[in-house]
Design brief:
This protein has about 270 residues and is α/β, with parallel strands linked by helices. The chain contains twelve helices and eight strands. Strands 3-2-1-4-5-6-7-8 form an eight-stranded mixed beta sheet, sandwiched between helices. It starts with 6 loop residues before the first strand and ends with a helix. Bound molecules: NADP nicotinamide-adenine-dinucleotide phosphate.
């Protein structure tokens, strides 16, 4: 599906910048893109670095864009939505964590078409994974257009909105789990005598290479693990220690706790 002819962001912060950069990489021209932000220094930054159009007015973004990414913090949604037209207008793609489609519809009225997305921080380097949810009545082309925009910063999966908290617990918070694992792997190498630099590089490249092998081979991780685990060898000794240490149970609990917290925060907002 082709990208929209014009895309705007309401909020010109980190995620908005990542998406705008991705869209430029994907071939959109700066004059097809517009961002609003109340902060003049953010607007200047985006105009200087990306050469996109900038404005103080959220209404102008909505007026001049086929698709609008809502990229403000949850606490600013109500103020931002107050400036937006309540008529049919553009297709809205909200990346606001925890904000339900029904809540946004209450703010924007029944007319606008709305897609809810949960991206994650590797989007900043074009390697994100976003989960996309919509009302059942969203037109197929609108879902495809939103997908094309999000694909500018990584991959996209579709989920029912009821599973957005689970997505938050897994891939939203997930990068932090992986950072912790890389930290621990590095420290473990240092304990065994490697320098911090060498241990760090070995750890990062191991995580990156293993993840790419899973993706590019299309094999189940369990199968790849079995293939490198010879009886009585080094890997089986390491894996046994990880299982005894409760790694699997700790990961289950991490995703469960983050999912529950996301549900709680969503209920509060
Ligand atoms: N970062 C992530 O990994 C990630 C992942 C998933 C979802 N999200 C969601 O993405 C959204 C944006 O996150 P972010 O990290 O990009 O935040 P951010 O860097 O704080 O960007 C938000 C921007 O919106 C501006 N803003 C505030 N009120 C506004 C208004 N009424 N109208 C227009 N713009 C307004 C802010 O300006 P001021 O600074 O002047 O207030 C700020 O520049 C959040 O809802 C977050 O939950 C982020």
């Amino acid at each position: 599906m082709a990208l929209p002819k014009s895309v705007g962001t309401v909020g010109g912060g980190n995620m908005a910048e990542a998406i705008l950069r991705g869209l430029l990489r994907a071939g959109m021209k700066p004059d097809q893109l517009i961002a609003s932000d109340p902060d003049a220094s953010r607007r200047e930054h985006l105009a200087r670095e990306l050469e996109v159009r900038v404005t103080e007015s959220n209404a102008e973004v909505a007026r001049s864009s086929e698709l609008v990414v809502l990229a403000v913090k949850p606490t600013h949604v109500e103020a931002a939505a107050a400036d937006l037209p309540r008529d049919a207008g553009p297709l809205y793609v909200s990346i606001v964590a925890g904000l339900r489609i029904s809540t946004l519809r209450r703010l924007l009225g029944s007319q606008p078409r709305i897609v809810r997305v949960m991206p994650n921080t590797p989007a900043l380097i074009g390697s994100g994974i976003s989960a996309l949810a919509s009302d059942a009545n969203l037109a197929i082309e609108d879902g495809e257009r939103a997908t094309a925009v999000l694909e500018a910063v990584g991959r996209v999966v579709r989920v029912p909105e009821s599973l957005m908290d689970a997505v938050t617990g897994l891939s939203g918070s997930g990068p932090a789990y992986v950072y912790l694992f890389i930290e621990a792997l590095t420290e473990a190498g240092v304990r065994e005598g490697l320098s911090t630099d060498v241990a760090g590089e070995l750890a990062v490249e191991t995580v990156l290479g293993a993840a790419r092998l899973v993706r590019e081979s299309g094999e189940q991780p369990a199968l790849l693990r079995e293939r490198v685990t010879s009886p009585g060898g080094t890997t089986v000794a390491g894996l046994s220690a990880l299982e005894q240490g409760g790694l699997r149970a700790a990961v289950f609990e991490a995703v469960r706790a983050a999912t529950a917290r996301s549900r709680e925060l969503g209920g509060e907002s």
